[in-house]
Automatic annotation (TrEMBL):
Protein name: NPH3 domain-containing protein
Compositionally biased residues, Basic and acidic residues: 496-507, 519-547
Species annotation: Gossypium armourianum
Region spans: Disordered: 473-567
SUPFAM superfamilies given in the database record: POZ domain
Family stated for the protein in its record: Belongs to the NPH3 family.
Pathway: Protein modification; protein ubiquitination
Family matches, as InterPro entries: NPH3/RPT2-like, NPH3_dom, SKP1/BTB/POZ_sf
PANTHER family: OS12G0117600 PROTEIN (PTHR32370)
One GO term of the biological process aspect: protein ubiquitination
Low complexity compositional bias, start-end: 509-518
């Protein structure tokens, strides 16, 4: 930061309540009133340097005491005091932080060269051109101070010239960046890095007001075509600087006017950031998009902003990780902790695009791999939110059922989520248990999970019966499997017929078992089914010993089902 010192005399201004005066042997003959402050000064030396005061005092005699109201002086009483001290020759220090109000006040008072040579405006312009615009942080600080005097700064060209200076430095090749800048990324140490990072400018620019920040980003993008990720990084840094963090806990909602004013400012910043996100996919991360969506829910952003964030997040949902999705709910009416509605909305957006791009996906296509990656991600998310003791079962089921069948190559992850929910919610009704377990496809459970499900007392009887029957059939198929390719080819149609007959048998057994629930305990039925499995395995073992030719081997699955039917 650069400074300029003007004047040589010591500071003789002093303040007493709302009056500011100069220690002098000469009585005051000029009173300047600005807002609630009264300045007791002297016509000499102020009037000769200020064209405005010359005009206002033109009708007064030299001996008259003149009182002037200057309530509209830009920068107020502090800016006027700098101009007055310059007239008295008192030492003043100028820098980027006070240049704008001093320059605007000097212009207002017409302290130009036409009034007196070497006047205040000339010195301020020289300082602006040679020091402020040449410096990186000086330009940013000066630009930020223009928000208090936007019209004067715009009319005097301060805003435009500061923006041009900042953009020119941003576009400078990193090898030629020699000025000081702020860069506090985790793990980055300047002394250990020889080259300047491409996003070296993002943190300093994030100190600007959102409208000025937008001007910088717009100017950068209109001057040349920067990498979309670079603009995205600048937006990410700005959001972290100014928007509330909703990732760790549920923010407190307050109805206070000051809080509401702050929320309105945050909403404006959020909507501006969303509108500046480049259309290129990957310009910002999916984690950042989901974070913005969570903040939008908290701030009550416009539906247009939320819809745009959901659309962009849906395009990149495949890149998400579990941690990217774990946000607390921002609605005060929600008792549950996790914002499962946010994930459901993004998933729905993703599925719309997925179905549009791949109405009939093949087994090895990219779209199948994509949807299965999403399936595993959603099942992992369900396992986390299932631990929320206040999570409604309807929201869990709705999210689980939103995925198409092809999304789950197996149902192990879904089973784990259901088991966790039943464990954390022991008072869930039988109807809700059945509703959850109806989503399970027992044929897509691994042997280890089926073994766990058979012994799981939390599951409904219907589900246990289905697992037992399928586990028994799976075991029979594995024991009768033959390695010869010809045998496998001949067995295929027979096994298909046997499977169809078996499915009907399972349905009949389940129906019968369900009707006997009121008479027999679930545990007794389970033991009965296990006994059937043992007897079935014993009989199949005897049958296999008596086989003597390949034709009999091929007909074995059908015979097993026929014997089950006769029993």
């Amino acid at each position: 930061m650069k400074f300029m010192k003007i004047g040589t005399k010591p500071d003789t201004f002093y303040t007493e309540e709302a009056t500011r005066t100069v220690i002098s042997d000469t009585p005051s003959d000029l009173t300047i009133r600005i807002n609630n402050v009264c300045f007791l000064l002297h016509k000499i030396p102020l009037v000769p340097k200020c064209g405005l005061l010359q005009r206002l005092c033109s009708d007064a005699d030299d001996s008259d005491i003149v009182t002037i109201d200057l309530h509209d002086v830009p920068g107020g009483e502090d800016a006027f005091e700098l101009c007055a001290k310059f007239c008295y020759g008192i030492t003043i220090n100028l820098g980027a932080h006070n240049f704008v109000p001093a320059f605007c006040a000097a212009k207002f008072l017409r302290m130009t060269e036409s009034i007196e040579k070497g006047n205040f405006v000339l010195k301020l312009e020289a300082f602006f051109n040679s020091c402020i615009l040449e410096g990186w942080k000086d330009s940013i600080v000066a630009l930020q101070t223009t928000i208090k005097l936007p019209e004067w700064s715009e009319n005097l060209g301060i805003i435009r010239r500061c923006i041009d200076s900042i953009v020119e430095k941003i576009l400078t090749p990193t090898s030629k960046v020699s000025w000081s800048y702020t860069y506090t990324r985790p793990g980055y140490i300047k002394k250990q890095h020889q080259s300047v990072p491409k996003d070296w400018w993002t943190e300093d620019v994030s100190d600007l007001d959102i409208d000025l920040f937008r001007c910088i980003i717009t100017a950068v993008r209109s001057t040349y075509i920067p990498p979309p990720q670079l603009i995205g990084e600048a937006l990410h840094v700005y959001a972290c600087r100014w928007l509330p963090d909703t990732t760790k806990s549920r923010p407190l909602h307050s109805s206070g006017s000051q809080t509401e004013e702050s929320r309105e400012k945050s909403r404006r910043i959020l909507e501006s950031i969303v509108s500046m996100i480049p259309s290129d996919r990957g310009s910002v991360s999916i984690g950042f998009l989901l974070k913005l969506l969570s903040i939008a829910n908290y701030l009550g952003a416009s539906p247009v902003t939320k819809t745009e964030l959901i659309r962009k997040a849906g395009l990149q949902f495949e890149e998400a990780t579990l941690n990217d999705m774990l946000f607390p709910s921002q609605l005060p009416t929600d008792q549950h902790f996790y914002d499962i509605d946010l994930v459901a909305a993004v998933l729905e957006s993703y599925l719309v695009l997925w179905r549009r791009q791949s109405p009939l996906p093949t087994e090895n296509s990219h779209m199948v791999r994509s949807i299965r990656k999403i399936g595993k991600l959603i099942d992992s998310y369900l396992q986390v939110v299932a631990r929320d003791v206040n999570m409604p079962i309807s929201k869990l089921v709705s999210l689980a059922e939103a995925l198409p069948d092809v999304a789950r190559e197996d149902h192990d992850g879904l089973y784990k989520a259901i088991n966790i929910y039943l464990k954390e919610h022991p008072d869930v009704s039988k109807a809700d248990k059945k509703r959850m377990c109806r989503m399970l496809d027992c044929q897509k459970l691994s042997p280890e999970v089926r073994a766990h499900a058979v012994k799981n007392e939390r599951l409904p009887l219907r589900t246990v019966v289905q697992v037992l029957f399928f586990d028994q059939e799976s075991g029979s198929r594995s024991t009768t499997h033959k390695p010869e390719s010809i045998t496998r080819a001949r067995q295929a149609p027979i096994e298909a017929e046997a499977k169809e007959e078996y499915d009907k048998k399972v349905q009949n057994e389940v129906t019968k078992s369900s009707s006997r629930v009121t008479e027999t305990s679930e545990r007794e039925i389970q033991k009965r089914m296990e006994a059937k499995m043992v007897r079935g395995d014993s009989e199949k073992g005897k049958e296999r010993k008596g086989e003597t030719n390949s034709t009999a081997k091929m007909m074995e699955p059908k015979q097993v089902f026929q014997r089950r039917s006769s029993r």
